[in-house]
Sequence to fold (212 residues):
Amino acid sequence: MTPVSRRAFVTVAAAALLVGCGGHPAAPPADARPGGASATARTGGASTASRPAAKPARALGRSVPVGLRIPAIGVDTPLIRLGLAPDGSVRVPPVAAHDRAGWYRHSPTPGQKGPSVILGHVTVGSYGDGVFRHLARLRHGDRIVVRLENGRSAGFTVGEVRTVAKADFPAEAVYGDVDRPELRLITCGGPRSGSGYRDNVIVFATLTSASP
Fold:
């Protein structure tokens, strides 16, 4: 990743604090504690941070993702490409009746070495539930499949699901360099706060298979 694209990639960390998941930015909660004190790692209430997802697979070549399937929570969505807004924050998928998730195009493509980032809404305003409405229900070992533009599919295995206060977003854990292909799925969660939600739900997954 070039220095320019790396800088652009990292800016999504700050933007993740503002994802309203209903089309409206959510301010950090007034009682948020600095330093990650309120962050929790959960899979049914138990931390999975010390449990590996599965044996990692070899990295794939670059190919833009076009679809995402998560059987455990009934997700099968096309993927759009997300860039940066004029203020430097990451764009989020548009609020629409037929909600879709989006791949942040300044991150590695799914299957490349590094953390590939996909964002989606938990709610879409008056349209109701968003594509990632059940993201927090994922558990260690669940399967995620990303369809790629070149016709291949990248299979990931969930290693950890975290719900964290937006004010304590773990930017380094989510966006920092890693030496293998990984995937991050991000949405909102927790109690509502004004027009948005107090928390972010973050899924950490590792590439474990690929179709020919």
